[in-house]
């Protein structure tokens, strides 16, 4: 819980990870390239006082995660989103068993989401069923640019992926988080293209597609898909820290998302351990759209409360104290929102002439 100026904010961090990138777990040079790229994002987008050493960055462990996220970070509940990356790491990058164990020990604070790769075919489907029976997860994280033998990626619209989505529907795995947007060395940018979300979301309306990183740098593509597909959501992982280094860019991102998707379909994410939630929560609560960016309406306290936790809590059925709940905005199901706020600056300028 975070409190500022008499307002209480229920915080759900919808994208965290527990990874192991230490040299002894790196399978090849690509494992080092991957974590080095992560660290450069951390180093270049964080305030100086929030920087970690490279050694701390390689592995955090459960005890430090609990302190960073819950004790220091204001978070009420967090959701694991693992990335496997078995071609780069001997035991995988995201530590699924460790994360599942931590979530099992703290079910009031942590939700465990799993992962799958449709290129594993029938064996992968059998493994998904077995993992679901043991772990009982309701969400998965997909990494479409992951390497797999000679393959350097797959699409959500591939026939083999559809077989997994059909199985997800049958098992009750309804929340499909997908990394779409920022590439990470040595993965390929185009394998993270957001375009295939459109196809899958239209064909599987019973599933929720949460586009992590809101498709950056393809924000416009994502917004045009998200506005017409009511089961598509935007996750702010990686977008959030621009609030520090490029606040006007962040204003554009959040302004476009609220205009195209609406205030009920945007999720706060720190992307821990890329960044820690504390400073991101504080900065977002204090943030406002610059006055000269008249194409966007000012952010309201209610919108911030929804983005910081109420939206994700609703999707995952997390209990929220009654006094902190807010009604949905009752916006149009598809198409742009806030028609009354269309470029106020331009309208005022025209009226003055």
TrEMBL record:
Record InterPro entries: Amidohydro-rel (IPR006680), Metal_Hydrolase (IPR032466)
Pfam families according to UniProt: Amidohydro_2
Superkingdom: Bacteria
Amidohydrolase-related domain residues: 12-318
SUPFAM superfamilies named in the record: Metallo-dependent hydrolases
GO molecular function: hydrolase activity
Region (Disordered) residue spans: 325-353
Coiled-coil residue windows: none
Name assigned to this protein: Amidohydrolase family protein
Upper taxonomic lineage: Bacteria, Bacillati, Actinomycetota, Actinomycetes, Micrococcales
């Amino acid at each position: 819980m975070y409190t500022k100026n008499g307002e209480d904010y229920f915080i759900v961090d919808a994208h965290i990870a527990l990874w192991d990138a230490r040299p002894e777990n790196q399978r090849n040079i690509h494992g080092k390239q991957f974590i080095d790229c992560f660290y450069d994002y951390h180093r270049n987008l964080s305030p100086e006082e929030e920087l970690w050493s490279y050694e701390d960055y390689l592995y955090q462990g459960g005890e430090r995660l609990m302190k960073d996220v819950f004790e220091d970070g204001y978070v009420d509940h967090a959701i694991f989103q693992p990335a496997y990356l078995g071609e780069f790491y001997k035991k995988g990058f995201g530590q699924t068993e460790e994360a599942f164990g931590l979530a099992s020990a703290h079910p009031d604070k942590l939700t465990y989401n799993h992962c799958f790769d449709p290129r594993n075919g029938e064996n992968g489907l059998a493994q998904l069923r077995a993992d679901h029976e043991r772990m009982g997860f309701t969400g998965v994280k997909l990494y479409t640019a992951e390497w797999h033998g000679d393959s350097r990626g797959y699409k959500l619209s591939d026939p083999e992926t559809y077989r997994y989505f059909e199985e997800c529907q049958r098992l009750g795995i309804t929340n499909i988080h997908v990394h779409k947007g920022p590439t990470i060395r040595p993965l390929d940018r185009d394998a993270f293209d957001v375009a295939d979300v459109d196809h899958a979301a239209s064909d599987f309306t019973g599933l929720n597609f949460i586009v992590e990183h809101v498709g950056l740098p393809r924000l416009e593509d994502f917004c045009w898909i998200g506005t017409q597909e009511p089961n598509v959501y935007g996750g702010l992982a990686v977008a959030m820290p621009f609030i520090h280094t490029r606040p006007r860019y962040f204003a554009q991102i959040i302004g476009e998302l609220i205009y195209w998707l609406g205030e009920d379909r945007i999720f706060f994410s720190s992307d821990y351990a890329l960044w820690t939630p504390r400073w991101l929560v504080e900065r977002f609560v204090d943030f406002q759209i610059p006055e000269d960016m008249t194409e966007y309406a000012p952010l309201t306290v209610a919108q911030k409360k929804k983005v910081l936790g109420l939206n994700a809590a609703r999707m995952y059925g997390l209990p929220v104290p009654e006094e902190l709940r807010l009604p949905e905005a009752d916006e149009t199901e598809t198409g742009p929102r806030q028609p009354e706020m269309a470029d106020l600056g331009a309208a005022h300028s025209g009226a003055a002439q």
